[in-house]
Amino acid sequence: MNTIQKQTATLATVLTALVMAPSSSFAQAPAEAEAGNTTLVDAFDGKQPAAGWTWLREHPGYWRMKDGGLEIRVEPGKAHDVKNALVRDAPDRSKGGYLVEVTVTNHSVPTHLYEQAGITWYKDGKPVFKLVKELVKGELMIIPGRKPMTEPSVRLRLIVTADSWIAQYQPGVKGPFLEAAKGKLPPPGKDQVSIQCYNGPPDAEHWIRFDDFRIAPLADKPGEE
């Protein structure tokens, strides 16, 4: 092989490597992610939540990044005054549907009526919908749908379109996703998605762990990952 042939072969190898190289992800460049063509991911494995999140009524010392996850203490409060709610702008659902997922783990068995943790949907700064694991009349269940859910960990999945939602859950973070309920959403506007916990006991220290948050376009078909 002469010099020109060698140079041509080397260039071809480099071009092939560039074409086959994986594209960047939200975990590497969260500010650049866009709805419809990018999966947004936060594994909560850093010192802070990824770019794009903001704290609503932050209570320092009552949240922590620990062992590759986000942990938040379940404080007393309701939906309108929840502390340490982590909130981010949601993609424009008028341009295409997508799913929102996060794994929720109770470090302590819930004991306080309506003690809960999961995903809350905001419209124009107000909570309008939630998908949570909640203690209701002594029974742990997925709300909405009132589906029994006694596993310490559950993967929550909220599927949204321009005008609808489907709530799904995966007990023990294994096996198929199950449908809890479905319904209608108000027209798209200033939509935000939050992970949060509230209605905690005033006299006990309960912590919730959040892992592997993601937003993905419905090209990632639910149940077929």
Describe the structure.
- With 225 residues, the protein is mainly beta.
- The protein has a single domain (26-217), classed as Jelly Rolls (Sandwich).
- 8% of the residues lie in helices and 43% in strands.
- Strands 1, 3, 4, 6, 11, 12, 13 and 15 form an eight-stranded antiparallel beta sheet that branches.
- The radius of gyration is 21 Å and the shape is globular.
- The termini are far apart.
- Mean pLDDT is 84; it is low at 1-37 and 220-225.
Spell out the blueprint of helices and strands:
Elements: H1 3-20, E1 40-42, E2 54-56, E3 63-66, E4 69-73, E5 85-89, E6 98-106, E7 116-123, E8 126-136, E9 139-143, E10 147-148, E11 153-160, E12 164-171, E13 178-184, E14 191-198, E15 207-217
Antiparallel strand pairs: 1-15, 2-5, 3-4, 4-15, 5-14, 6-11, 6-15, 7-8, 7-14, 8-9, 9-10, 11-12, 12-13
Short summary of the structure?
The chain has 225 residues and is mainly beta.
- Uncertain segments of ≥5 residues (pLDDT<50)? 1-37, 220-225
Rg, please? 21 Å
CATH architecture: Sandwich
Shape verdict: globular
In whole angstroms, the N-to-C terminal distance is 46 Å
Structural category = mainly beta
Number of domains: 1
Work out the helicity level. under 10%
State the helix count: 1
Number of extended strands: 15
N-to-C order of helices and strands = HEEEEEEEEEEEEEEE
CATH class: Mainly Beta
Q: Summarize the main sheet.
A: 8 strands, antiparallel
